[in-house]
Amino acid sequence: MTKELRTMLTIENLQVSVEGKPILKGLSLRVEAGQVHAIMGPNGSGKSTLAHVLAGREGYEVTGGSVRFGDEDLLALEPEERAHAGLFLAMQYPVEIPGVANMYFLRQAINAIRKARGQDEIPAAEFMRKVREQARLLGIGEELLKRDLNAGFSGGEKKRNEILQMALLEPRLCILDETDSGLDIDALRTVADGVNRLRSPERAFLVITHYQRLLDYIVPDVVHVMADGRIQRTGGPELARELEERGYEGLLGTKLAA
Amino acid sequence: MLAVKRTRRLDPDPAFATAFRELAPRLPGSASEPLARIREEGFARFLALGIPTQRDEAWKFINVARIANRPMRPAAPTELPLDRMLPYLLGGPRARRLVFVDGRLQPQWSHTGGLPEGVIVESLARAAETRPLALAEALGELDDGRSFTALNTAFADGGAWIELPAGLALEAPLQLLFVTTGGEVPVMSHPRCILRLGDGASLTLLETHVGLGEGAALTNAVLQITLGSGARLEHDRIELPAAQGSLLAKIDGALGAGARYRQTTVVLGGALVRNEHELRIDGSGAECLLSGVAVPEAGEQSDTLVRIHHRAGGSHSDQYFKHVVEDRGHAAFAGKIIVHPGAQKTNAYQKCDNLLLGDDGEVDTKPELEIYADDVKCSHGATCGELDTVALFYLRSRGLALEAARAILIHAFAAEVIARLADPTARALAETKLVERLGGGLGSALVETVLGEAA
Fold first, then answer.
1. What CATH number is associated with residue A48?
2. How far is A24 from chain B (nearest CA, A)?
3. What is the spatial distance between Cα A15 and Cα A21, in angstroms, rounded to a whole number?
4. For residue A40, is it within any domain?
5. Is the torsion defined by CA of A163, A168, A174, A175 positive or negative?
């Protein structure tokens, strides 16, 4: 049986500068629907820059190349339009927003996306049911839902809350930016289980991580090793294990790993 | 010397004298000689004090003469339909209230029946009949050197006399609703309220100022508060003047030992809204907590002046004011804490946080501390910033449009003060009006959620 591959994300020769300094120096990547791609790399390799540029954060200057999401020019879209199109970034440092109730925010976000897709607002009862169900699966207590968005949440609670949003907003492309950082082993497993539940033939994942450990739980189809603003090597899950054994220096050489 | 003094005040527009001559015989209590004399004296003091200019330190940030020194008249009687009044009737089904339109009591909306014995809630006009001497004394005893207080004493039309005997806690909230309609010639009204809580008495007072007309209007309100030992007053104020409406409000208060005064003011709208407070803590263990939020948009000004006197030790005061200033809006805050000699173990704090969102907006803050005791804790602070761009991005990345994301963040900033309103119906009105003002398509869902959380 052959699996039909549908291209979800196509990045070609992407070049990005921050305050005039080149960070991404010609990055190319292609993600098909249903796939999980892992991007690994040493600190400063440009991993988080890639995540932010894809989500449309300010402060990054695209100096060359292109990004297509489905059949749209992703870089021409506002951040909210990218979300409407089905892109979701689980952030490395989710923002604390005191005064905005978590539940209210979740409902506004779901309805904004439904509206953009021509759907009616989610009925209150259905919303509550979905939130409670997903929260339970992710080990998020009722109390956390009632609090203000990420305000005073521990690192692990913030990451769980990101995955909760991801589950509720039902994106086509999920980007996880160092979601494993700051998680203990139990939280890591819960978060990974949350991600694995969302894996489907219609959905793709870009998992950005520094360590191989997350990939024991979220097993990728493709692994890329990034350094100096480019993808240096691409392989299967075995590449992550090779990296674990040899380290970035062993795999890439002293110059690129620095 | 004379020339310098001159610039601190302007001669009042001659129309004030004309109006006073014309109106004096018809004002509440005109038949009572002592009251008539107090009014005459008030008007003479107003003429002598003149209209303050920006050279006067207390009026440094705003040009009040532009609004208040022009020909104005009392409004003609207006009938307002129920559906226009209904949103502003606060306090739930058990509330008592006095409703005034352009300074005239509206008996059809007012309700003061069934109050416990000893409680007095009556309009100023009624008080002028039942207790003319006491009223004359109350009007006369407030001599704060402020011209608009003197003007109010001269013209006092609407307003109320409220008194709770010692030990009485009034469960039902009491609302004072002042509506102005405005006219082609600016209309003026001068509500004067006297509020006295006996030792250990407690009250929730909902004070609402609403502009329901297109025309220009000036409300010049004065409220005198006396709290006995251990008395408690929750004071929610919602000020919603129309675009051409202005409000000058002065609160003069005295707190006895162990009294608690908690006031929260929400200002949404108005060409000029000036809230002045002069509060004296006369006994130990008293608490005075003032909070406020104003959201001036294009052409609107909100100015707050606070003076808290700690005249007895061991008391606590806290001022917390927030402003959101949109394009060409202007917010000003000047707060002064005076710790008098011997008022040891005083805790007095003051904070003013501002969101300045337009290139042409203006924020002024002026903290002042005068401390004549050595064992006290006092602090002040002010901040001024824009919306957090990272938070904006976070919300947008979840699908919220820029306008909605902005509105959510502004709302979050202002909501902290709105949450301090003691009465849930006051919170609901403030929430509704704030969300209306912010736009961004937040609609009723936000109000529901916020109030749902609170409930």
1. 3.40.50.300
2. 21
3. 11
4. yes
5. negative
Spatial distance between the Cα atoms of A31 and A49, rounded to a whole number of angstroms = 18
C-beta neighbour count of B141 within 10 angstroms: 10
Is residue B359 over pLDDT 90? no
Determine, for residues A169 and B398 on separate chains, whether the beta-carbon distance falls below 8 Å.
yes
**Is A1 part of a structural domain of the chain?**
no
Q: Which ranges of chain A have pLDDT less than 50?
A: 1-3
pLDDT at B448: 57
Q: Would you kindly state where each structural domain of chain B is located, as residue ranges?
A: 2-283, 388-455
Per residue in B290-344, pLDDT (tens digit) is 999 999 998 999 999 999 999 999 999 999 999 999 889 999 999 999 999 999 9
Question: Residue A161 is part of which domain span?
Answer: 7-257
Total structural domains within chain A = 1
- Domain membership of residue A15 (yes or no) is yes
**Positive or negative: CA dihedral B277, B281, B282, B283:** positive
Distances A181 to A105, A134, A214, B3 between C-alpha atoms, Å: 24, 22, 9, 70
Q: How far does CA B219 lie from the centroid of its chain? A: 11
Residue carrying the six token digits 């909902």: B206
pLDDT value at position B446? 59
Instruction: Name every chain A residue with its beta carbon within 8 A of the beta carbon of B389.
Output: 58
Per the structure block, which two tokens stand in for B55?
A: 């050279």
b/e per residue, B101-125, with b = 16+ CB within 10 A? Answer: bbbbbbeebbbbeeeeeebbbbbbb
pLDDT tens per residue across span B16-68: 999 999 999 999 999 999 999 999 999 999 999 999 999 999 999 999 999 99
pTM of the complete model: 0.90
- Interface residue ranges in chain A relative to chain B, Cβ cutoff 8 Å: 55-58, 78-80, 82-84, 88-89, 91, 94-95, 97-101, 103-105, 107-109, 111-113, 116, 146, 148, 165, 169
Residue A140 placed within a domain:
yes
Binding-face residues of B in 381-400 toward A, CB within 8 A: 388-391, 393-400
Type of residue at A225: V
